[in-house]
C-alpha cells in the first residue's frame, strides 16, 4: 500500500518538479520490483474517517470521554502516551489508515483472492519513519498475524528503484489495484488539515 503523499514526493528523487504526481510511474516501479498487487490507502482512510465519526457519535450519545482526540501519526500518539497520561482515554481507538488497510489485506482480501492470509505479506510505503514503529506495536496483530509486515519510506523506495536499475522517468504509467472500491476525496487529503473530521 502507498500513502497519497508518496506519489507526490517520490518524483523529486528522480528530478521531477516538487509536487508532481508520479503515481503511475510509482506503481509501475513497484510492479518491476516484484510486488504482485499495488494498492493505495485512500479507501482505508475513508474507513478510518467513518469509524472515527461513529466513535464520536457514540461518545456523545453515551457519555464517553470527550473531546475525542485523533491522529494518524504514530509519533504523536506515542508522545501523548508518554507525556499526557490524562488524555489517553480521549484518544480514538480507531486504527490509522495504514493499519486499517493491513487488517483488510489480512482478512477480507485473502477471502476475495482465495489465498491463505499467512501468505499475504503487506508492505507499506509511507512518508514517515514512525509508521515502522506503528506496524510493530503489539496491538496491531491478530492471533500472531501482523496487520503490516514491513514499512519503507519514500526515500527507501527511491533507493530500491535505483538499486534495481529501473529508469523511473522512462516508465509507462500503471494503475493501482482496487481492494474494495472507489475512495472519496477525503481519503486523499486525510493527512491535511481538515482531512480527518
From TrEMBL:
InterPro entries, alphabetized: Cytosolic_Fe-S_CAF (IPR050340), Fe_hydrogenase (IPR009016), Fe_hydrogenase_lsu_C (IPR004108)
Chain's gene name: hyd
Domain Iron hydrogenase large subunit C-terminal: 1-197
PANTHER family according to UniProt: NITRATE, FORMATE, IRON DEHYDROGENASE
This protein's name: FeFe-hydrogenase group A1
Pfam families per the UniProt record, alphabetical: Fe_hyd_lg_C
Species annotation: Ruminiclostridium cellulolyticum
